[in-house]
Amino acid sequence: MSAAGLVSVAPICEEGMTFLRPQSPEHSQEHILIYVAMSGSMVPMRVLESDSIESVKLRIQNCKGIFTRNQKLVCGGRELARSNSLVRDYDVSNGNVLHLVLRLSDLQFITVRTCCGKDFTFHVEKNRDVGYIKRQIAKKRNLELIEDQEVLLNGEPIEDQRLINDLSKNNTDAVIHLFVQKSTKIRATPVGKNFELSIVAPKPDDIIESDVERGSEYGGNSESDHNLYSPRKPPDRNTLLEPVILNPKIVLPPEISGLINSTMNGLDNGNYPIRSSEGTGGAYFMLDKSGTKYLSVFKPMDEEPMAVNNPRGLPLSEDGEGLKKGTRVGEGAVRECAVYLLDHPKSGRRSFSGEAKGFAGVPPTVYVSCLHEGFNHAGGVSVKSGSLQMFMENNGSCEDMGPGAFPVEEVHKIAVLDIRMANADRHAGNILVSKGEDGQTVLIPIDHGYCLPYSFEDCTFDWLYWPQARKPFSTETIEYIMSMDAEEDIALLKFYGWDPPIECSRVLRISTMLLKKGVEKGLTPFAIGNMMCRETVKKESVIEEIVQEAEDSVLPCSSEAAFLDCVSSIMDHRLEEII
Ligand SMILES: Nc1ncnc2c1ncn2[C@@H]1O[C@H](COP(=O)(O)OP(=O)(O)OP(=O)(O)O)[C@@H](O)[C@H]1O
């Protein structure tokens, strides 16, 4: 895309431009002028074709204060995902526009200090309000009435309705101060010559319950509803949420039907979907009836990156290809659902067991139709279809912490899923971190819209570089892997109404084959995963070479089975070389 005709053009940073001014005639040949499109403006920037993507991001960080990890750059419809690759590797050339998508966390760390100096730290969603924080403190202390808590920021009282996002905008390191007025009853009982004092405070749970009751009694418009994200209004008849069921033989498991019903109740009660500030597509947090809890995440297909109603300002795809090579715009939602279905439980295949939790723990996901004015509608409000996934409580993503603390089995379960699904988007931000009942760290894989691609070109697995990936699979995991069957997987997807394109089925068959053969040879997740990922943008991966060699070897009219036989024997040969 050319930069001609742009409205506002301002140099990104004179300092940076001086820094990158060509030092030699050799450099001057590579020197190009590109434009960074961000928040409605277009900023020119001089770079060298030999600059790494990371250094371009660093320039943006230095000049605009946006951390490199929060930046996603898109050029010519492709995400410049590999930070160590060069500008020229992505064919970025003079006059090109780089679209900057910010990846801002929905979570925020805040510290609340009481007047006696006790600190409470919270990892809260930015859309929460001060009232929510007060209730959390009340719960932790099991003592204070929320009305008795006074909260100050920079010495000024702050109301319950103020959002954490607003408070933290100009006060990233701010501490919120909490004062508690003891309006609780004090009872004195004589004990010998002394009095024993006991402080009686109502239980915080009671307070919350009565608040909610009052809210519903008055149609949800009571003043006491300060805990809500948005003002309630009477049930809106212009809302709809229902599963898209293509095969009448399908019976939805209770987890899924419950998720749909409770999400619908939230919409009916006037709770608006809240758009996530993370991600390149439209992802909406759906609230429960009381408006205090996230239940699910809805991702409409027409808001996917480069789709017609994308809310992040990404341009429309020119040829229908998605942000990753080998993917198509608007096909993400169906893949989100397919990956949930194919994440078979340990106890048996998904179709035969009622167990909701799969081996890798992909959150329950279903394809739905949903109508709500709160989504991004360009030409009038209309029904959207997309994936609805259970919201999983978490303490952030793997991007927020080093991998050292992740249990080996947790990393391996994600590796098995990604290898089978040939995931083209497994960055650390797409693995949520949570705690299990036993206090153990649990990893939750999300965002599977770029799984089961048409080709292996953009497979990326961030876990490849984590130490756990070099540890051997456990016996239990090996048993699980050996029970996988790509043909049955494809049959299951068809049963649910999705007949995968031949190329995607082929990818699933080949990646399952590689995983099983690799495990038979005693390979680690790293060794297998490494065969599926390109070392650099331009250098084909081992799996791509295998596929190419097989394509060159078989006759054009050969059956798919003959082609796969050929892949199998070439793969055996390549695996022998690796060992
Ligand atoms: N099931 C879930 N439970 C909890 N939070 C979730 C869930 N799914 C998504 N999120 C949150 O919503 C954010 C956006 O979702 P997601 O990453 O799936 O969107 P996306 O637009 O596809 O992102 P990307 O640009 O990484 O492809 C995530 O970063 C995460 O914080």
Structural class: alpha+beta
| Total separate domains | 4
Strand % is 15-25%
State the helicity in percent bands. 25-40%
Q: What's the overall geometry?
A: globular
Q: Looking across the biggest beta sheet, what order are the strands in? A: 13-17-18-16-15-14
* Averaged pLDDT: 82
Largest sheet: 6 strands, antiparallel
Radius of gyration: 27 Å
Number of helical segments with 4 or more residues:
15
For the secondary structure, the number of strands is 20
Cα distance spanning the termini: 46 Å
Bound molecules: adenosine-5'-triphosphate
Low-pLDDT stretches are 1-10, 14-23, 182-236
Overview of this protein structure:
The chain has helices at about 15-20, 25-30, 55-65, 130-140, 165-170, 205-215, 255-270, 330-340, 410-420, 475-480, 485-495, 500-520, 525-530, 540-555, 560-579, and strands at about 30-40, 40-50, 70-75, 80, 95-100, 105-115, 120-125, 150-155, 155, 175-180, 185-190, 195-200, 240-245, 275, 285, 295-300, 365-370, 385-390, 430-435, 440-445. Helix 9 crosses helix 12, helix 9 (about 410-420) packs parallel to helix 13 (about 525-530) and helix 14 (about 540-555) packs across helix 15. With about 575 residues, the chain is of the alpha+beta class. Strand 3 and strand 4 (about 80) form a beta hairpin. It has a six-stranded antiparallel beta sheet, with helices on both faces. A five-stranded mixed beta sheet has the order 2-1-5-3-4. The chain has a five-stranded mixed beta sheet with strand order 7-6-10-8-9. It has four domains: about 15-100, Phosphatidylinositol 3-kinase Catalytic Subunit, Chain A, domain 1 (Ubiquitin-like (UB roll)); about 105-210, Ubiquitin-like (UB roll), CATH 3.10.20.90; about 240-390; about 400-579, no CATH class. The structure holds adenosine-5'-triphosphate.
